[in-house]
Amino acid sequence: ALYRAVGLALLRAGRDPHDAAAAEAAAATLDLALLDDPELRSEVVGEAASIVAAEPRVRERLLAFQRDFAAHPPGGKRGAVLDGRDIGTVICPDADLKLFITASDDVRARRRHEELRQKGIETDFDSVLSDLRVRDARDSGRDAAPLVPADDAVLLDTSELSIDAVFARAAALVEERLAAKR
Prior knowledge:
mainly alpha; about 55% helix; two-stranded parallel ribbon; 8 helices
């Protein structure tokens, strides 16, 4: 969501997400209120997020914030759940539990297409699938924190699972890890 917020800030300012200096400046002055903006989950913002996430200076600006959030969860909570394409490898390499959640390209595109359709956004499945593959290729091939599972991550393929089943599996993994630490 942080990278999406940087992308959204750039787009709203009329700036190009490929402009590294503008992206770094947006990350340095990020308004966290953007995290609650409904536009954050739009396709155009997702594309901008993928572009700015490849910029090492943007990643540097957001790294301390993410690590501090993980180490000091809001509300005095005992832990935090962070999601992102480099959480287990870069942001929290010493996390107690790392899940690498995935699904087949077709399933992910179908889910995203349905999500967009429910929001009243007209798009076709093939465009969603193509956009997903382009973003994955960019994120997997970037020099700064490429999209790869951590060596000690638990792979959770959700292709054939409902959202409730995914949650139940993740919760069970957390409980197993907590029990092992006791």
